[in-house]
Write a structure and sequence with these properties.
Number of strands: 0
Radius of gyration: 19 Å
Distance between the termini: 15 Å
Order of helices and strands: HHHHHHHH
Structural class: mainly alpha
Helix content: over 70%
Shape: elongated
Largest sheet: none
Number of helices: 8
Length: about 230
């Protein structure tokens, strides 16, 4: 699969490392924020009065940064892919671009519009932009659904590129499993599952995705060391 390109190999390694760190950061921060995310809804004014920017931004920021890191990983993989497999890497890259465009917009709006207005006690027009009731039946819930569906398509497409050795086969499986399990974010607004099942699948997906990026970073590092 590999076409030698030192810049892509180095950038791919560091991007995969940063992607895994972003996944770890947001998983911890979102886990701590989870009780607030699913707290009983007592109205917009009560939500604004009790809103705390710091714990909210603690998971929104890594979600935003994840989009950029993930796109860079897929761009580097595409650059290193040989011509006969370029179609799959192109599909992975195009899907990653769609994911990054949608989700970076979603999280940037949260950082600069939603947080600003809530902390200044201005709630006009915010009701459907909150990560609160009626989420996931809200604008960010819908954007996450379609955005992460593109991320899953990117991972599934990229999985087709890895099969040469034992490490590549592990990357193939982890990319495929993280892509398939991540579709729950797309289906959840359409077909509601019990919260416990959703959380278990989401946690499993985060672990697999984190592992897949660690494996990808090792792959980039090994490719750089090969003569």
């Amino acid at each position: 699969m590999i076409i030698k390109n030192k810049t892509a190999q180095q950038l791919g390694f560091w991007s995969a490392v940063l992607t895994s760190l972003m996944i770890l950061w947001l998983s911890i921060a979102l886990g701590l924020y989870h009780p607030t995310l699913h707290a009983p809804w007592n109205g917009m004014q009560a939500y604004a009065d009790n809103f705390l920017a710091e714990p909210f931004l603690a998971w929104i920021i890594p979600c935003f940064l994840l989009t950029l890191c993930f796109l860079t990983v897929m761009a580097c993989i595409h650059t290193l892919t040989s011509e006969e497999k370029k179609l799959w890497s192109l599909l992975a890259l195009v899907s990653a671009i769609a994911y990054t465009t949608i989700m970076s917009t979603c999280y940037y709006i949260q950082m600069v519009v939603v947080v600003y207005n809530l902390t200044h006690h201005s709630t006009d027009g915010l009701s459907l932009w909150l990560f609160a009731f009626p989420y996931p039946h809200s604008i960010p819930g819908a954007m996450e659904g379609i955005g992460y569906a593109f991320m899953c398509l990117s991972l599934i497409s990229a999985s087709r590129l890895f099969s040469a050795d034992k490490l590549s086969k592990w990357i193939n499986r982890s990319f495929l499993l993280s892509g398939l399990s991540g579709f729950i974010i797309f289906t959840n607004p359409l077909i509601a599952l019990p919260l416990s099942i959703t959380l278990i699948v989401a946690a499993t997906n985060a672990i697999i995705l984190f592992s897949s990026m660690i494996l990808a970073s090792i792959w980039f590092k090994r490719s750089l060391q090969e003569r």
